[in-house]
Amino acid sequence: MRTSLPTQHHPLRSRRLVRRRQTGAFTIIELLVAIGIILFLVSLTFVGATNALGLSKAASTRATILKVDNALRIKFDSVIKRAEKIEKNRLERMRLVAEANSKAAIAFSFSPNTTLGSLFNDDATRSVIITMHLMRKTVPQSFHPYEVGPTNPITTSAGSNYQSANHKERTESAAILYHLLVGSTGENTDSESPTFSSAEIKDTDGDGLLEIVDGWGEPLRFYRWPTRALRPTRPSIANIFDPTDISLHPEFARVIYGNLRDLKTLNSSPLDPTSGLLQWTTSVTSVSDQNNRLQAIEALFATPQTFSQFVVMSAGNDKTLGFKEPFEGYSLAPSDTAPLGYLCSPDCDVNIPASKASALDAAQDNLTNYNIRR
Ligand SMILES: [Ca+2]
Ligand SMILES: [Ca+2]
Q1: Ligand 2 centroid to 310 CA: how many Å?
Q2: In degrees rounded to 5, what are phi and psi of residue 80?
Q3: How high is the mean pLDDT in each 10-residue block of the chain (374 residues)?
Q4: What residue segments make up the domains of the chain, in order of their start?
Q5: What phi and psi, each to the nearest 5 degrees, are found at residue 367?
Q6: Which of 249, 268, 269, 251 is nearest to 259 (CA)?
Q7: How far is the CA of 210 from the centre of ligand 1 (A)?
Q8: Which ligand is nearest to the CA of 371?
Q9: CA of 152 to the centre of ligand 2 (A)
Q10: Which residues have CB less than 5 Å away from ligand 1 (the ion)?
Q11: How far is the CA of 29 from the centre of ligand 2 (A)?
């Protein structure tokens, strides 16, 4: 016969109750821990998703830059071929050099017969001037009078859509890229024009001009001759011949070109293989005149003896460029602190460490037509 014991006094039972009560207490702690872990995992997933989104934006930026790069290469190659033909035709080359001279005179208000004018009548510089003048004409990078002139073919072709009041200069080079590569107006005669998706084209400033944009929807930047990224300090006759000088501030060049290039190989310009611009610089005896000539060449074209092939750049995920804008700083007497954005100058004083570090930090995530091939 089974006798049932009073449950409330059973020692085993009360131990079980205690354990259950203890288990209950642990469960609350465990629940809190579990909630913590879940929150942590959710946050990880969110960061992961954000990163993946960033990656896909970077990937689409790379694809857009590659398309622009290929199309621009075709344009520049055809300019070089045209320049070679013109070089053989005496009348045509005289016409081109005169045109380059008068365009520079209008943009910078100097008389063609001044010292600068002699740059355009010098045998050594003739071929590089024809090539660079044609490049500027074919592929401008800003609305500056030296680039597209007072009657702007881009804004004219955009017709009544263009609203100058809404215009922001930082979108200029991206609008020009669109106009040159996609626009249906006179300049664009290549049958191999690239096609861009609607995500790659946008009027970010609402001025009526479409721009080619990166994966973050920001306008790309185009620098035709980015020589100041390689030589961020003002060149002087004392250092321009020195191949190690170009390596003094190599960080900005590394941002653009990646680590593929030996920087010392960037110490010459493919557009000026016979160093005609330097010959003109040194054909006066006074050192200060020589340095003035170097500065004038930078204002009119690009830094001599420096690799000058174009850069297409996205400001990257932080949307901050770290370089001056392509429209900035045209001046016949550029100082060390002048912007010189048209030559892709870093957006800092490279001789002040904090200033240099902050510009480099901004530039670090930039995507360019060189570093996407790393
Ligand atoms: Ca626009
Ligand atoms: Ca950036």
Answers
A1: 19
A2: -65, -40
A3: 46 51 63 74 64 80 96 94 94 94 86 80 90 94 85 76 90 94 59 85 95 97 95 85 74 84 75 91 92 89 92 98 93 71 94 96 96 78
A4: 50-373
A5: -110, 135
A6: 251
A7: 5
A8: 2
A9: 30
A10: 171, 203, 205, 207, 209
A11: 45
